[in-house]
Amino acid sequence: MISPGSRYVALGSSFAAGPGIAPVLDKAAGRSGRNYPHLVAERLGLDLVDVTYSGATTAHLLTDRQDDAAPQIDAVGPDTALVTVTAGGNDLEYIGSFVRGSMMNTLAKPATILGRRVANRIRARVSYLRDDSAYDAAAGRLAEIVREIRDRAPSARILLVDYLAVVGPATRPRLDVPLNEEQLPSIALMADRLAGVFATAAEKSGAELVAVSALSKEHAVGSAEPWTTGFTLRPPSLGGVVPYHPNEAGMAAVAEHVVQHLQAQ
């Protein structure tokens, strides 16, 4: 168990940062004061350094600057006791493909007024699937991040926290999300493959895995108590949400599973 007052560094992309969830601590990063790292730190009394950043790829965690922010790994030092990592989805354009497909299908509806050919051209702009090498590469990069964390903080516990499920058994094509019966299974397959990336990286690197993806499928879009948002063209500033991202309940659920994992070990 991590002792109260210990240094906790949170690394990751938007599924850790919490865009659209109040209060907003960093608008550019889309970082919320109620994301799962903040909730975990509050629950366990940890000294949190949260460098999560919406849109981050594994390269932004390891080597690349993002806007004016240094590579996230620079926040890890010898006194770090806990590190959580939620990244890799942007490497595969997972949520990006889901959003673009939903947007194109939504825009294609009024486009049918101009003709089926125009509507079909709009729909055809999104490719959902990636080949095996893309998933293998993402797993390798996550494992590399773990190795770099271990070099910088040899005593730290390192948790790979994967992505909340957006698509689950209750998610209905056309009704809950603007994808059809052929498109939605492709997104579900991408989500399953991304969960496999985390499992592979944990096995390769020896990091601990918190597989919230499997635990949350009953709380996907279309369920009675979703932990992620659905699709809308309305931005949060106008009363909308950031599409296909954790909501407040989802962040609380991830935090609970991380705490339970830490307390059980």
Automatic annotation (TrEMBL):
UniProt-recorded Gene Ontology molecular function terms: hydrolase activity
Keyword field contains Coiled coil: no
Domain of life of the organism encoding this protein: Bacteria
CDD domains: SEST_like (cd01823)
Keyword Hydrolase attributed: yes
Xref: InterPro entries: SEST-like, SGNH_hydro, SGNH_hydro_sf
Domain called SGNH hydrolase-type esterase: residue spans: 10-253
Regions crossing the membrane: none
Keywords: Hydrolase
Stated name of the protein: SGNH/GDSL hydrolase family protein
Record organism: Kribbella lupini
